[in-house]
Please model this.
Amino acid sequence: MSLTDRLLLIGAVALLLFGIVLLFSYDIIKIDWISFMEIQPSYKPMENPLPVPALSVPIEGAAYIPGMGAPVNPIPADEISLARGAQLYNIHCSHCHGLTGQGDGPIAPFLEKRKPANLTSDVVQNKSDGALFLVISNGVPGSMPALNENLTVRDRWDVVNYIRTLKP
Ligand code: HEC
Model:
């Protein structure tokens, strides 16, 4: 074997070893590759909600004005509202508050800090429609999630109307 052949062989083996080491270390040695897909103004999932753009007009009307107290229910509790409310309640609330509102949904046993409120109780039923609307919109910090992103303003009032039918 000539000297150049040997050098070539050593070189090839070294390259192979280097390749294998790279294969196993790709997760550890992260080379920041320039990705042009990443450099763009798009909005990434799980980022904080964007502030409302200046001069924008809410298409549903303002849900409520913070600091002005509980809003007044603009949706009459007619057949359509109650049907929509029942449907939305079953989708968005019943897994915690139970199908009949007793606070006994399938998730309730797993909530350790606070149990879902019994919606048929006087404590809840004595609250105003607007107060219930605010609970659905903002949740209860630390125990109930805010559902304003899941339910439109109209949806929330329908659910409020439906909660009124949950009296025992
Ligand atoms: C992830 C579970 C969960 C979901 C989903 C949920 N809630 Fe709750 N809710 C709770 C818990 C827990 C409480 C008790 C809060 C406390 O006492 O700290 C509560 C409390 C309440 C209260 C009483 C608040 C008060 O101030 O007494 C109302 C009313 C209510 N929920 C309505 C709803 C409605 C309507 C929905 C569906 C649109 C809903 N919740 C969805 C867990 C949930």
